[in-house]
Design goal:
CATH class of the largest domain: Mainly Alpha
Number of helices: 42
CATH topology of the largest domain: Four Helix Bundle (Hemerythrin (Met), subunit A)
Helix content: 55-70%
Cofactor: Mg(2+)
Family: Belongs to the GlnE family.
Catalytic activity: [glutamine synthetase]-O(4)-(5'-adenylyl)-L-tyrosine + phosphate = [glutamine synthetase]-L-tyrosine + ADP; [glutamine synthetase]-L-tyrosine + ATP = [glutamine synthetase]-O(4)-(5'-adenylyl)-L-tyrosine + diphosphate
Enzyme class: transferase
Shape: elongated
Oligomer: single chain
Mean pLDDT: 90
Radius of gyration: 38 Å
Largest sheet: 5 strands, mixed
Structural class: mainly alpha
Number of strands: 12
Strand content: 5-15%
GO molecular function: [glutamate-ammonia-ligase] adenylyltransferase activity; [glutamine synthetase]-adenylyl-L-tyrosine phosphorylase activity; ATP binding; magnesium ion binding
């Protein structure tokens, strides 16, 4: 509360200066003189005025009130001097609400409502007063008369609510304010119904049986000062007359009292405004969605036919408590949580009391979810009020008693601020003043009864309390769901009653865990670890489980986290990092709950987890570039003379690099091109390290090696466009060293190539390292290694169209640099023919493509969703680009390129295709590649077929960088993009 310096300790009281009263308005002195409050007789009243939240606003309103009262002002002024209660209520409400200042100026006699002994009327009294006012003022006078009556009743509540800021009046409890506001809303709705019936039915026809059901905060009896009132209509007969009455009620109530909203009715705004009880029941049995049952938690008869209202609630409530058994309950709940967050603009999220992080909706959503999960088995939870539900959840052991008390305190504090902000101008708002608006924040602190402490003034205390309560709500929001689960499996006992195993499984199932029994087993194993590890896990798990529940596969994520925790049991840094670096923990949960590929890599390369943190220049996952990793890998392998140990060292670094790349990919830090380049760099480094190790092992001791060897990358390796599941397509070319016969050189080089292929392809728990040499001349029947001259002779005499096409992606990747360069110069004459290719060759390429489409698609595969060979997939795009290369590379030097994407850029620049056509092909290639990579990340092994709707597809969508886990929308986009690309392929490749 704003404190004013005390007057002199001795002597006669003196009139304080304007400054000491906290008045900053330039006209304040003149205003006091106009009121005549400049004598010693008014000192006590002036100090009371100074304690108003906004003393200047209160003083201005008093001046206006004196002007409109005229001679009657003296009566009010005299009453203020002797009636401490009136003084406290009037000064406080005028300093808290400009809106009520305007109301009192418009209706100056209303000050009398605040004089003497003032108490709140009962709900019955409120209803009687407003209905009587309606009946006495039917017709044109109804609106103004009821508007004033409603504002007068609101004025009395507001004055009692804020009076303690000025005088030592008792502070009204939040629950009391919310109940009274709801009772007043009920009375207003009943009065509006009275007017509507008179308007529509008159004296000629009977009033229809119509019940008004309050929803939302009004239904929960926790209404705000200024709020929409959500209602639903249920009638005995949903005929035209009843519908007109309901419509007239909403129109009149909205114009007179508050905005009414019937959008929560069946089918929303598109549905009938009025339904019979049977119609409501039929809708909720067959069509209602989870959020509609969640909304019904707050349903309460508010006005109209009381018996019909009770029948409505009794008929629908049993369905509410069965909602958790619905098949789509979990996905609907998760979608609702996301929608709440997305509704808030990022630039005001920190100021939003209702929808911001750690705000009111977090509390309400969590409480409602727990009610839906456990309410069928525990009737004590079948209450509408958030505060009452928190009490019952704590009493029943569903959340800790201390947590229930703390969350209630934070909820009531945030609601108090919301009330004060709405009172200021009698407008609906949930937005805190901007951080730099010091005066607005200082006013809010005073209006909210906040007093200075020993270290801070009221403004400082407000800022501290806002931060503390927001953080407490955010922390408890996770703990609310998961701490009792830990208690149920034997964690540290925090409160007397624990969740039963059945209740714990219900709760886990509602949070997205499909195997809640297994999840409880994992939790028991994690928390039962002795000493420090068990204690840290108990602290961490509520938050980690909350983050996991937002991933596509929380069950798999929890299992992976258990495996990782057990594998790193001796690594103290692991749990310490998760505890101290929330960004690391949150990112790790996202990875574990999405991917089966990465967790196994992390077990063997746990140091990658530390790079999940943010560094000075960005995420540490991106600190190392592909070139640096490649050099490190080759150097590490080079320290070992034994090829097996050298390749083991290379595998270790490859494992770490794959974990890094895949993590960055899943976390949205690398785009498709970046992933492909990074994976290619790893493969190239592994090939170089393996070749070097085998050559070292088989090199003559006192003589040079018999041959130089180069490794030529083909396919996606040659195009630097590898995916997670790609093999390494290569060819080996050798050249005899001086004095060595070609036959000897080829034999030695073949031994080297065989060992490289065998050692890399040896069984391992790592992702496979398959070296595929089937693109060499004569395929599997041809020699593994040829000399440069042999390759040249073969391509000149025997090369088929598909072999020339394959050379378009040939690029040196390892071994002797000069030999690789000369090989590429040699094949340029064949892959980029000087006169292009003949019509016969074009037809042959089309024939081969048609055969591939017909024969290579796996049996049972869906051609629409096979990422490699399906409609508009990778093969379609790559074959189309390669045909354009063969036709035009002699005219467009930029097409002398092994990358599909870079060739598309050249094709567009050269005008070989229209920009729109190129765009469709490019997006199809990127979409199919991202989807193919995502399939490996999610499944843990290579596959090219997108799954049907379900959790697996949702995970693929997330891993592919889709905006959410809506697998259906992701699949629709994939089909749309590839369908458009296929149309271009038909235009370009097939004609």
């Amino acid at each position: 509360m704003f404190e004013v310096p005390a007057g002199p300790a001795t002597g006669r009281p003196t009139v304080p200066s304007v400054g000491r009263l906290g008045l900053v308005d330039a006209n304040a002195r003149a205003s006091l003189e106009q009121l005549g409050w400049v004598t010693n007789a008014h000192v006590e009243m002036l100090w009371a005025l100074s304690r108003a939240p906004d003393a200047d606003a209160a003083l201005r309103a008093l001046v206006w009130l004196s002007e409109v009262l005229g001679p009657d002002w003296d009566e009010l002024a005299a009453a203020l001097r002797v009636d401490v209660g009136l003084r406290g209520r009037l000064f406080a409400v005028l300093g808290s609400s400009l809106g009520f200042g305007d109301h009192l100026v418009a209706h100056p006699d209303s000050w009398r409502l605040l004089a003497g002994s003032v108490t709140l009327p009962s709900a019955t009294e409120l209803r009687a007063r407003l209905v009587a006012c309606a009946q006495e003022n039917l017709g044109a006078a109804a609106g103004p008369a009821l508007r004033r009556r409603y504002r007068d009743e609101l004025l009395v509540l507001a004055a009692l609510d804020v009076a303690s800021t000025v005088e030592n009046e008792p502070v009204l409890e939040f629950a009391t304010v919310g109940r009274h506001l709801s009772d007043l809303a009920d009375a207003a709705l009943q009065a509006a119904l009275t007017v509507a019936v008179a308007t529509v039915c008159g004296d000629e026809q009977p009033a229809p049986r119509l019940a008004v059901i309050a929803m939302g905060k009004c239904g929960a009896r926790e209404l705000n000062y200024v709020s929409d009132v959500d209602i639903i209509f249920v009638a005995e007969q949903a005929d035209a007359v009843t519908t007109r009455v309901a419509g007239e009620l909403m129109r009149f109530a909205t114009e007179t009292f508050f905005e009414t909203d019937a959008a929560l009715r069946p089918e929303g705004k598109a549905g009938q405004l009025v339904r019979t009880l049977d119609s409501h029941v039929a809708y909720y049995r067959r069509w209602a969605k989870t959020w509609e049952f969640q909304a019904l938690l707050k349903a309460r008869p508010a006005a109209g036919d009381a018996e019909l209202g009770r029948d409505y609630v009794e008929a629908l409530m049993p369905m509410v408590w069965k909602a958790r058994e619905r098949d789509d309950f979990v996905t609907d709940v998760q979608a609702m949580r996301r929608r709440v967050v997305e509704l808030v603009p990022a630039d005001v999220r920190g100021r939003e009391l209702k929808l911001g992080t750690g705000g009111l909706r977090d509390v309400e959503f969590a409480v409602q979810l727990l009610q839906l999960v456990h309410g069928r088995n525990d009737e004590a939870l079948q209450v509408a009020s958030t505060v009452e539900a928190l009490h019952e959840l704590g009493a029943g052991g569903y959340i800790g008693r201390d947590d229930a008390a703390n969350l209630t305190a934070s909820y009531e504090f945030l609601r108090l601020l919301e009330h004060r902000l709405q009172l200021q101008r009698l407008k609906r708002t949930h937005l805190l003043p901007a951080p730099d608006d010091v005066e607005a924040l200082r006013w809010l602190a005073r209006a909210a009864h906040i007093r200075p402490d020993g270290n801070h003034d009221a403004l400082g205390v407000l800022r501290q309390e806002l931060k503390r309560n927001s953080m407490r709500v955010s922390r408890l929001h996770a703990k609310l769901f998961y701490q009792p689960l830990l208690e149920s499996v034997g964690g540290s006992m925090e409160f007397p009653s624990r969740l039963s195993a059945e209740a714990a499984q219900r709760q886990l199932a509602a949070l997205g865990y499909q195997a809640p029994g297994s999840a409880l087993t994992h939790l028991a194993a994690l928390t039962s670890a002795g000493g420090r590890r068990g204690r840290v896990q108990t602290v961490l798990l509520p938050t980690l489980l909350d983050w996991l529940s937002d991933t596509p596969d929380p069950d798999g994520g929890l299992l992976s986290y258990r495996k990782l925790s057990e594998a790193l049991a001796d690594q103290r840094w692991f749990l310490a990092t998760l505890r101290d670096e929330s960004a690391v923990a949150k990112r790790l949960m996202r990875v574990l709950g999405t991917s089966a590929y990465v967790p196994e890599l992390l077990i063997w390369a746990p140091e990658v987890i530390q790079s999940y943190a943010d560094g000075p220049t960005g995420p540490k996952l991106l600190d190392t570039g592909p070139d640096g990793v490649a050099k490190s890998l080759v150097a590490a392998a080079g320290r070992h003379a034994d090829p097996v140990r050298a390749i083991a060292a290379a595998r270790s670094l490859r494992r770490r690099e794959l974990a890094r790349i895949a993590s960055a990919d899943l976390l949205g830090m690398l785009d498709v091109r970046g992933v492909c380049r990074a994976l290619t760099a790893v493969w190239v480094a592994v090939l170089q390290a393996a070749l070097d190790a085998v050559v070292r092992a088989h090199a003559p001791k006192d003589a040079p090696v018999p041959a130089r060897i180069a490794v030529i990358g083909m396919g996606r390796l040659g195009g630097a466009e590898l995916g997670y599941g790609s093999d390494a397509d290569v060819m080996f070319v050798c050249e005899a060293t001086d004095g060595v016969e070609d036959l000897v050189a080829v034999k030695w080089a073949t031994l080297i190539a065989e060992q490289v292929r065998t050692l890399l392809g040896a069984p391992s728990s790592d992702p496979p390292l398959e070296v595929d040499t089937n693109l060499r001349p004569e395929g599997r029947n041809g020699p593994l290694v040829r000399t440069l001259a042999s390759y040249q002779a073969y391509y000149r005499q025997w090369a088929q169209a598909w072999e020339v096409q394959a050379l378009l992606r040939a690029h040196r990747v390892a071994g002797d640099f000069d030999l690789g360069r000369r090989f590429l110069l040699m094949v340029d004459a064949f892959r980029y023919p000087a006169d292009g290719i003949s019509a016969q060759t074009v037809q042959e390429i089309r024939r081969i493509k048609a055969r591939v489409d017909a024969e290579r698609l796996p049996r049972g595969a869906d051609p629409n969703t096979h990422t490699k060979l399906g409609r508009g997939g990778l093969a379609d795009v790559e074959w189309t680009v390669q045909l354009l290369q063969l036709r035009h590379a002699h005219e467009v030097p930029g097409l002398h390129n092994t990358s599909t994407l870079e060739c598309l850029d050249v094709i567009e620049g050269a005008g070989l295709l229209e920009a729109e056509q190129v765009s469709k092909l490019r997006w199809a290639w990127l979409t199919a590649t991202a989807s193919r990579n995502a399939l490996v990340l999610v499944k843990g092994r290579p596959t090219d077929q997108l799954p049907g709707p379900g959790r697996f597809l949702n995970a693929v969508a997330v891993a592919a960088g889709w905006s959410d886990d809506d697998g259906g929308a992701f699949l629709d986009n994939y089909l749309r993009v590839t369908r458009r690309a296929k149309a271009v392929v038909r235009e370009v490749f097939d004609t």
